[in-house]
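FAQ

Q: What does a record look like?
A: Structure on top, sequence underneath. For example:
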């Protein structure tokens, strides 16, 4: 019998090495990226997004994806994830022994075009063979939907648009779908309305919240999501991050901030807060010009 007084479990999916670093102007040495992942690997995370197998012409910072994956010291308790926009990316991620991959769609046509050079429909057509191959290979596939409340090109996004893409990713076979509040400007009321629509398509236990923190509402948005039953939140150590195709967006909400907040609310994230703080210091040093590795 589970102990009713035991703290409820939540999970923070660490985004720092991928979302956190993808938007940095300085080309970060591969060794620094590896050192960051290695610090995170000892902090109690179950999932860490390490890199993206995307076009290096589009996102040069992720051009060393294979080298990063080859260089990290793998903790068998951790799933090391990578973004894959197409089959070329999937095959490279598989060769690099990614523990799981993520396909990433958009709730608006304009963001889809800016981020993937494809319409929503074209992007889903590219994702389908990834999911089929990953199933054969025994590699779990996570899905993202970006711009779930606000789009840098189209403004406010209707909740039904988000729900439609969530349904398509569910039909493809994603084991979990992360809801990307890419701009970090969505007010909690709008996140709540979006969740009302999305929960009609996917149960809370298969959803994750991915909040950027531009407006400073990310923790409020996490609270709203908790009240709707979500228990997985994406975050990046040091609050690093942003999307190159979402101008003006700040980083992901900081993992150390989310971990402390969830602990205050009585949730158990399983993280070693000192180890997370150490990784956050290192992430901030990377941003401010480079630690000694
Ligand atoms: P495209 O230019 O239309 O691609 O880009 P293409 O298929 O026409 O190929 C053009 C060239 O790219 C070819 O090389 C391909 O080999 C190469 P060339 O013959 O010219 O030398 N190429 C690749 N190279 C390496 N890996 C690949 C790959 N695919 C093609 N996988 C493409 C289409 C999807 C590739 C491009 O738009 C792209 O890479 N987009 C990724 C953008 C990105 O990474 N955005 C940030 C991540 S998403 C995000 O941050 C949001 C999230 O955090 C949630 C949230 O906050 O909302 C997840
Ligand atoms: Mg993001």
């Amino acid at each position: 019998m589970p102990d009713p007084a035991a703290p409820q479990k939540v999970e923070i999916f660490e985004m720092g090495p991928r979302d956190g670093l993808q938007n940095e102007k300085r080309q970060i040495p591969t060794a620094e990226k590896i050192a960051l992942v290695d610090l995170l690997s000892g902090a109690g995370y179950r999932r860490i997004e390490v890199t993206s197998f995307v076009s290096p012409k589009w996102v040069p910072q992720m051009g060393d994806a294979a080298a990063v994956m080859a260089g990290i010291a793998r903790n068998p308790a951790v799933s090391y994830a990578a973004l894959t926009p197409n089959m070329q990316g999937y095959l490279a991620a598989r060769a690099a022994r990614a523990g799981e991959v993520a396909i990433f769609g958009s709730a608006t046509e304009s963001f889809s075009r800016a981020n993937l050079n494809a319409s929503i429909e074209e992007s889903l057509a590219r994702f389908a063979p990834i999911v089929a191959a990953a199933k054969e290979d025994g590699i779990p596939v996570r899905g993202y939907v970006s711009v779930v409340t606000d789009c840098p090109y189209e403004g406010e996004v209707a909740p039904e648009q988000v729900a439609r893409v969530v349904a398509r990713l569910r039909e493809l076979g994603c084991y979990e779908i992360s809801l990307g509040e890419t701009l970090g400007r969505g007010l909690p009321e709008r996140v709540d309305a979006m969740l009302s629509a999305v929960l009609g398509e996917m149960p809370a236990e298969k959803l994750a919240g991915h909040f950027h923190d531009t407006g400073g509402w990310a923790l409020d948005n996490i609270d709203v999501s908790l009240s709707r039953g979500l228990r997985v939140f994406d975050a990046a150590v040091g609050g690093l991050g942003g999307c190159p195709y979402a101008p003006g967006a700040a980083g992901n909400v900081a993992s150390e901030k989310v971990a402390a907040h969830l602990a205050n609310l009585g949730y158990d994230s399983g993280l070693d807060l000192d180890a997370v703080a150490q990784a956050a210091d290192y992430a901030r040093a990377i941003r401010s010009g480079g630690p000694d590795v």
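Q: Is there anything notable about this one?
A: The chain is about 40% helix and 15% strand.
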